[in-house]
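hi got a favour to ask and not much time before my train. below you get a single protein, a line of residues and a line of whole numbers that encode the local backbone shape. could you go over both lines and see whether the tokens make sense for that sequence. a few lines back from you is plenty, here it is:
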Amino acid sequence: MDFNLSREHQLVRKMMAEFTENEVKPIAAETDKTSQYPRENIEKLFDLGVMGMCVPKEYGGAGADPLASAICIEELSKQCASTGDIVATHNGLCCDPIITHGTEAQKAKYLPMLTKGHKVGAFCLTESDAGSDAAKGQTEAKLDGDHYVLNGSKIFITNGYVADVFVVFAMTDKTKGTRGISAFIVESSFPGFSVGKHEEKMGLHGSPTAEIVFTDCIVPKENLLGQEGKGFKIAMQTLDGGRIGIAAQALGIAEGAMEEAMAYTKGRVQFGKPISKFQNTQFTFADMAMRSEAGRLLTYQAAVLKGEGKRFTKEAAMAKLFCSEHAMLTTTKALQMFGGYGYTKDYPLERMMRDAKITEIYEGTSEIQRVVISGNIGL
């Protein structure tokens, strides 16, 4: 058991730490304030090979492993969780199911688009009446000759109004429950595809979230992803991997908040000494550091298991649950150290705290993670 990062993973961390400091940090506050999609930085991440980095080299990717992707998301999220979210969704929720379940023709067409082609990907599962209970989805797909006709809508779709390629889940047979759900690759240019409401969110203001509407949307028959009726299984497998990305995002938020708070408390003098010298402050930082280390081990373990082709459902759920709750606790305590200043937009802590909350909700709430974990420990 080797707990040391390989030279390649160390180089990935160094590259992303430098990119985050030089490109992401300077615009993070403005991105949050204006709710603008950080298009220029996403284009640069395509150029660096980070977007779609786990795609095999023969399809235009870097052939990186899940651990490298997690490290990238972690580093980006230390300063801008929105950017980390965009990358996590593209890599884990769009590219990954096409890599895993796509036909050779689908991979040859779409994976180069999602890497060299600079096309952004998204994942459409959630509906207004189907959140945690994903099997309640009402979006339908009916086969009509050489194509399927999709009708329905999806909500809270990350990358929704900037994405070009969507992995979409729809009912092909409502009488079969979860066994009647199928997965499709849908392009934003397909007839009948449209973007609905742009969500205004508490946090992640730079992450474009929207409703996606299908009105007699024409999807070629060859864009069925996997077998008909196997969509629910594909969705659950994809979310297992996606949870590693959210764990990494939450871990990065917590680490970034701790770094900001440590720098502030070293310079803030009260009662004759820096507040970093008070035992209460030091104990709080000790707890933060311990939780970050534990969260990193959980996240990296899940990523390595995924890369080795082993089962990682429980480990991914544990990582996501632990890191998301760590992010919420750490940002709250870090903001407290700033006092009134932390409540203002002069410092990044209030943004980090707002961004942290969603990690306890999306890609499976904390409660759902506990359901997954308990179901995988013999109960």
Observations:
- The chain has ten helices and ten strands.
- The CA atoms of residues 325 and 360 lie 7 Å apart.
- The first helix runs from residue 7 to 34.
- The chain has three domains: 7-113, 121-230, 233-375.
